[in-house]
Amino acid sequence: MNPNSNFRFCPQCARPLSFALVGERDRICCDDPRCGFVHWDNPVPVVAAVVEHEGKIILARNVAWPRNFYALVTGFLESGESPEIGVQREVEEELGLEPLAANFIGLYDFFRKNQLLIAYHVPARGTVKLNEELDDWKHVAFDQVTYWPGGTGFALRDWLAAQGYAATLGEAPQIRS
Predict the structure, then answer these.
(1) What pTM was computed for the model?
(2) Cα separations (Å) of 52 from 64, 73, 91, 140?
(3) pLDDT (tens digit, 9 = 90+) per residue, 102-126?
């Protein structure tokens, strides 16, 4: 079971939930056989952008993150939205930039948050104007960025490698001094 799942009562009939073997996995289920609710706990699709702006990569800091913690722009897909459109929307919303394209990098698991990351390289132009989700951003030269061992870090590593750069592994999303 995903530790992010905190269901205690059935969302359909309000009875207590318990664990049962369903589809060869322990799943949270309703105790009432007439209800039949099963919490499948499927991963959530999230888009991630390696934003290229003025010949550098943009790393951003979410308002809830520690002071030196920077990462790629990410966001949830809207209902009926393709990943290509979603990643461009996130770049426009969070950074105020005009995305010029969305070039697929790859799919990455992020088990800790029960997410499936869909990563793109997004060249963009304009002046950065952060929205309320972000409180800082950095332009980082391709040869100065470190990637982190998880989540969107692997997408950044793979994109840098495809551009001919040997990325350095860091401990967390951060800027090399």
Answers:
(1) 0.85
(2) 24, 11, 11, 10
(3) 999 999 999 888 999 999 999 999 9
Residues 73 and 36 in one domain: no
- Identify whether residues 94 and 165 lie together within a single domain: yes
Total structural domains within the chain: 2
SS3 168: strand
- CA–CA dist 137, 147 (Å, integer): 16
Assigned token pair, 95: 């950074």
Taking Cα atoms as reference points, which of 26, 44, 25, 61 lies closest to residue 110? 44
- Is residue 99 located within the same domain as residue 146? yes
- Residue 146 has phi, psi (to 5 degrees) of -105, 145
Only one residue has tokens 């990410």, namely: 74
What six digits make up the tokens of 78?
């809207």
Going along 37-175, which residue ranges are E strands? 38-39, 44-53, 56-62, 73-76, 98-99, 103-110, 115-125, 134-140, 146-147, 168-169
Question: Which residue range is the domain that position 157 belongs to?
Answer: 44-169
